[in-house]
Design a protein that fits this description.
- The structure is a single chain.
- This protein is an all-alpha fold and 416 residues long.
- Helix content is 83%, strand content 0%.
- Helix 8 packs across helix 9.
- The protein is globular, with a radius of gyration of 21 Å.
- It starts with 12 loop residues before the first helix and ends with a helix.
Length: 416
C-alpha cells in the first residue's frame, strides 16, 4: 500500500473557500488586466493574436492534462502518490507541446507561430502547478493555493506590461509571463508540496508503467472531457478569426472575459467543496452531499442573475470605462454573453458534484455533444454571421451541457 501524505491540519470549508476565492479573484483580475494591457498598449490585432494563441493551445493542453487535478483532489483513498501524477503530467505535456508546434507550423505564419509556441510553453509550467494544486486541494489546504495565485496573478500582469513596453511586441510580454510561471512553480509550488508529504521520495517522478497505465486509464475520460470542453470554448474563437478577422476576435475575447468575474466565485466554491463532497460520497452520506450540491448551484444561479441584470442596466458604462468607447457599442452582445454566464455557472457547479462522485466517463457526453453543436452551427451560420450569431450558438451549446449534467445527477442518485 502506498505511503500516505503526512497528517496535516485541514482547514474548514469556509477558510478554504476564502483563500481560494481571494486567490482566484486576484489571479482572474490580473488575467483580465493582461487583456486590458494588450488592448491599451497594443492593437485589436495583437489582442486577437493573443486570443488565437490561447484558442490553439488550450484544447490540446487541456486534453493532455487528463483532468489530473480533479482525479487527484478526489482520490480520498490515496491509490496513487503525487510522484505518479507528476510523471504522467510531465510526459503528456511534452507530447502536447510537440503536437502544438507541428500543427502551428502547418497552419500559421511566423508571427502567429511565435506567440502560440511561447503561450504553450507557459502552459506547460501552468500544467505542472495544476498537479501541485490538486494535491493541496486533496489535503484541504487551499491557503497554499490562494497564496500562490496572489503572487502569480500580479507578477504575470507586471511581466506582460514590462515585456510589451521593452520590446514593443506581444512576444516580449508573453515571454515575461512564461518566465514568471516557471520560477513560481520551482520556488513556490514544489516547496508547498514538500511541506505536506511524509516522505520526499513520494514527489519524485516514478516511471513505473505498471502504475502509470491504470492511472492513465482512470484519467483518460477526463482528458476527453477537458478536450471537448475546451474545444467548445475555443472553436467559436477559431471560427471568428477565420471568418470575421482578428479585430473582431479581440473584441469578442475582451467582452467574454468579463464572465470570469462570476466564474471566479463559482470555481472557488467548487474547488473547495469537491474534496468534501468526495468524502461524503465515499462514506455514503448522501444527505450532506445533496445539501452541498444545492448550496453550490443556488449560489451559481444567484451570481449569474446578478451579472445579467448588471449587464442590462450598466453594460455600456462598464464596457466604456474598462475597454474604451469602441467596446461600449457592443452592449447587446455583452448581455447575451451574460446569459451564457448564467447557464455556465450552474452547469459548472453540477459538474463539480459529478466529478466528486468519481463519475468520469459519462462526462464525455456533457462536453462532446455541446462541442459538436458548436462546431456544426459555427460552420453553417458563421460565414455569413456576426458576433451575435456566435453568442446565440454558445447559448445553445451550454444549455445542452446543462441538460445532460442534470440527467447525470439524477442517474447518480438513482444508482446510489
Amino acid at each position: 500500500m502506498n505511503a500516505l501524505p503526512k497528517t496535516t491540519r485541514t482547514l474548514s470549508l469556509r477558510a478554504n473557500f476564502s483563500w481560494i476565492f481571494v486567490g482566484n479573484v486576484v489571479y482572474a483580475a490580473s488575467q483580465w488586466g493582461i487583456l486590458i494591457a494588450i488592448a491599451r498598449l497594443g492593437t485589436e490585432e495583437m489582442l486577437g493574436l493573443f486570443a488565437l494563441g490561447l484558442a490553439i493551445s488550450a484544447p490540446i493542453i487541456q486534453f493532455t492534462n487528463l483532468g489530473l487535478r480533479q482525479v487527484l483532489a478526489t482520490d480520498v483513498r490515496e491509490v496513487y502518490v503525487i510522484g505518479d501524477y507528476l510523471s504522467l503530467r510531465l510526459f503528456m505535456t511534452m507530447l502536447a507541446l510537440l503536437l502544438i508546434i507541428v500543427i502551428s507550423v502547418t497552419l500559421y505564419d511566423v508571427e502567429a507561430l511565435q506567440i502560440i509556441v511561447f503561450i504553450s510553453i507557459a502552459k506547460v509550467f501552468e500544467a505542472l502547478s495544476d498537479v501541485a494544486y490538486g494535491f493541496l486541494q486533496q489535503q484541504e489546504r487551499m491557503d497554499y493555493i490562494g497564496k500562490a495565485q496572489l503572487i502569480k496573478g500580479p507578477a504575470s500582469l507586471v511581466s506582460m506590461i514590462i515585456g510589451i513596453l521593452l520590446t514593443n511586441s506581444l512576444a516580449g510580454g508573453v515571454i515575461g509571463m512564461l518566465l514568471v510561471w516557471c520560477i513560481l512553480f520551482i520556488t513556490f509550488d514544489l516547496h508547498n508540496m514538500r511541506r505536506l508529504v511524509s516522505h520526499q521520495e513520494q514527489m519524485m517522478p516514478r516511471w513505473d508503467l505498471e502504475r502509470l497505465k491504470p492511472l492513465l486509464w482512470t484519467a483518460l475520460p477526463m482528458g476527453f472531457v477537458a478536450l471537448l470542453g475546451s474545444l467548445g470554448w475555443s472553436l467559436p474563437r477559431i471560427f471568428i478569426e477565420q471568418f470575421l478577422g482578428e479585430a473582431q476576435l479581440g473584441i469578442f475575447a475582451a467582452l467574454f472575459y468579463l464572465l470570469v468575474a462570476g466564474s471566479t466565485i463559482v470555481v472557488a466554491l467548487g474547488q473547495s467543496a469537491a474534496p468534501r463532497m468526495a468524502q461524503y460520497r465515499a462514506i455514503g452520506n448522501w444527505q450532506a452531499y445533496t445539501r452541498l450540491l444545492l448550496q453550490l448551484t443556488g449560489i451559481g444561479l444567484a451570481i449569474g442573475l446578478i451579472g445579467l441584470i448588471g449587464a442590462i442596466f450598466f453594460g455600456q458604462q462598464v464596457l466604456g470605462l474598462i475597454y474604451g468607447p469602441t467596446y461600449a457599442t457592443y452592449t447587446d452582445l455583452f448581455v447575451l454573453l451574460m446569459v451564457v454566464g448564467l447557464i455556465t455557472y450552474v452547469d459548472t457547479c453540477i459538474g463539480y458534484a459529478i466529478t466528486a462522485a468519481r463519475i468520469f466517463r459519462l462526462q464525455i457526453l456533457s462536453s462532446g455533444i455541446p462541442a459538436l453543436i458548436t462546431y456544426g452551427l459555427c460552420l453553417f451560420f458563421l460565414p455569413s454571421g456576426t458576433l451575435f450569431t456566435v453568442a446565440w450558438i454558445i447559448i445553445g451549446a451550454v444549455s445542452a451541457s446543462l441538460l445532460i449534467k442534470l440527467t447525470m445527477i439524477g442517474w447518480i442518485f438513482i444508482r446510489r
